[in-house]
């Protein structure tokens, strides 16, 4: 059966001064838990993971599992520049009860294919009997993953799929053609659910759906039904919310303020929305949340 899974990439709540707002993060987790989406992607790019320390990682993973694990799949991102750190985070998350993990390739310094393979080999060992996704984001990590390397990674125990961000549909299709049939692929492009599934993916990891899940659920349902007119209508709604909110965590958090979910801010160096952008977010949230 063709899948149209939506994994919600969840923002992390911070106070205006940059301090972790754990209760605000719990409120966001609870809101996402009511979305009907298939899963949650915790502490990825949308969760500002590079700005979260070890104690905060532990607290946030514990809170996410507590609030979400009975409602949906929870994929915990553990990627770091070093194998040591990625393995340490994997073990912490596993001890807390996580069973699904994702790891961005090593980043900042350029790594060879063999170095990337060894990194995932060790993270895979740390996962134990859980499931691990390769997170491919060369625009941010500086380390691409060729189809040939992904085939090697797919042969590791526990590596069950990949999340692919800011790559073309043709590149996604090239991965699909190379990896085993049961290897899962997710796009990080919020608006591309239908197109990505047509290219061989199982779904999307979407940050925008954390604020406005309704049009994404409608698009997934339309895709399963095969109703062309329903797909077109739902796609237009998804395109509208993505155009206004996009992958901008500050705008997502403005959406949570409008919804009364959490009064949260970004810790990383991101611009707050302008007055015009705040008005646009309010309009789209009113229409689609």
Task: Give structural attributes.
289 residues, alpha/beta, TIM Barrel, globular
What does this structure look like?
With 289 residues, the protein is α/β, with parallel strands linked by helices. It has one domain (5-211): Aldolase class I (TIM Barrel, Alpha-Beta Barrel), CATH 3.20.20.70. Helices cover 48% and strands 14% of the residues. It is built from 12 helices and 8 strands. Strand 4 (100-104), helix 4 and strand 5 form a beta-alpha-beta unit. 48% of the residues are buried. The model has no long low-confidence stretch (mean pLDDT 98).
Write a short abstract of this structure.
This protein has 289 residues and is of the alpha/beta class. The chain has one domain: Alpha-Beta Barrel (TIM Barrel). It has twelve helices and eight strands.
